[in-house]
Design goal:
Blueprint: H1 10-21, H2 25-30, H3 32-57, E1 90-95, E2 107-113, E3 117-124, H4 141-152, E4 157-164, E5 167-171, H5 178-183, E6 186-193, H6 195-198, H7 203-223
Antiparallel strand pairs: 1-2, 2-3, 3-6, 4-5, 4-6
Length: 225
């Protein structure tokens, strides 16, 4: 799926670096055109480039090109956040199932910030029930996870979050025991890449290959639950 020219350019990463140093509304107002040209439009183009491969994996993925569904928001909700800067210096392209909301039940994604590109799979707990989206399948998950770890661990990193004393706690591993799966609030499996990877015309094909590798995680957790 290589494109004839790069979708993501050096200007995308330069915008994020500048935003990190000038994270205030006045700067963003002055650089709104840069944001649209070098970030918002390239992410829309990346969504369009990846959509055929994603739909080939599963026709029920949502590729409707809607903000909040396929794209993260650059504006930060600072009402309850410790970080009061108004903008996030990273953005994501999401591929959720149709009807999925609040990262439920799972997603394939590409993320970009000033220094890193990531592509992978993630699943989060149900924000209404405050329980893992996989809580009803705990008995079968350890053996399945071990199988996936053997298949993927050399190429992909895995980490998961639990809630400890009211705080999200990151665990750098594959969830492997029933106790861990019961505590799991989020699980991410991804490949982290240097910006130079995203500057190549072949980057959509690279991301599509990652999605093919990780689609069994989405299928098991999000289509069979």
């Amino acid at each position: 799926m290589p494109t004839h020219k790069s979708i993501i350019t050096a200007e995308t990463f330069r915008f994020f670096r500048d935003l990190s140093r000038n994270n205030r509304k006045e700067w963003m107002d002055q650089n709104r055109e840069r944001y649209q040209r070098h970030l918002a439009q390239p992410l829309r183009d990346l969504l369009a480039a990846l959509s055929p491969a994603v739909l080939k994996l599963h026709s029920g993925f949502d590729v409707s090109n809607h903000r909040g569904v396929n794209f993260s928001r650059i504006n930060r909700d600072i009402r309850f956040a410790k970080d009061k800067t108004p903008y996030r210096a990273q953005m994501y392209v999401f591929f959720p199932p149709q009807g999925g909301k609040n990262r439920q039940p799972g997603q394939l994604y590409v993320g970009i910030n000033a220094d890193t590109v990531t592509a992978g799979f993630r699943i989060y707990f149900d924000p209404k029930t405050k329980t893992s989206a996989l809580a009803g399948r705990v008995a079968e998950l350890p053996a399945w996870s071990a199988q996936q770890r053997r298949r993927l661990a050399r190429k992909y990193e895995s980490y998961w979050y639990s809630m400890e004393k009211g705080q999200w706690t990151k665990n750098e591993s594959w969830p492997s025991t029933p106790e861990q799966w019961k505590k799991l609030k989020a699980w991410i499996v991804r490949r982290r890449m240097k910006p130079a990877t995203a500057l190549r015309p072949a980057f959509p094909a690279d991301a599509a290959k990652i999605f093919r590798d990780l689609f069994p995680l989405f299928r098991f957790t999000s289509l069979s639950a």
